[in-house]
Design a protein that fits this description.
The chain has five helices and no strands. Helix 4 packs antiparallel against helix 5. The longest helix is centred in the middle third of the chain and has 31 residues. The radius of gyration is 16 Å and the shape is elongated.
Length: 130
């Protein structure tokens, strides 16, 4: 489990860093050279995967994690909202393509990023060894 958490944290770091902005995309390709759109897709995908891992990790380790009730509270909040957050980002992505509203998509992505940071913080702090 610890190796898996390290891998997920690496994915998170790659998805949410400015270093990715140096990616050169082909003009006329799927992203038509739009690095922001590419990074947005990477962020949405990584966030969905990490949040899924977090709620499963919390559920699978609920007995051990009982002494930290804030972890269950956070996981329950993610369970209740993650699909809405992802769908909102996907809708904002579509709007960005249509009208160039980058700020709205950035705002949506920041909500995902905050949830991922909280989830990964809990998983790193409470690594479960079996």
């Amino acid at each position: 489990m610890k190796k898996f958490l390290i891998l997920m944290c690496a994915i998170l770091a790659l998805s949410f860093t400015e270093g990715c902005s140096s990616t050169k995309l082909a003009t006329g390709g799927a992203y038509n050279g739009d690095t922001f759109l590419y990074q947005s897709d990477q962020t949405i995908d990584a966030a969905q995967k990490i949040l899924t891992v977090f709620v499963k990790w919390e559920y699978d380790n609920r007995a051990i994690l009982r002494q930290w009730p804030e972890i269950k509270t956070s996981a329950d909040y993610v369970r209740a909202n993650a699909e809405k957050w992802i769908n909102t980002c996907l809708n904002l992505r579509t709007a960005y393509i249509a009208n160039g509203d980058k700020q709205a998509l950035e705002t949506g992505l920041s909500v995902l990023q905050q949830a991922v940071v909280e989830a990964t913080t809990y998983m790193k702090q409470r690594t479960i060894t079996k």
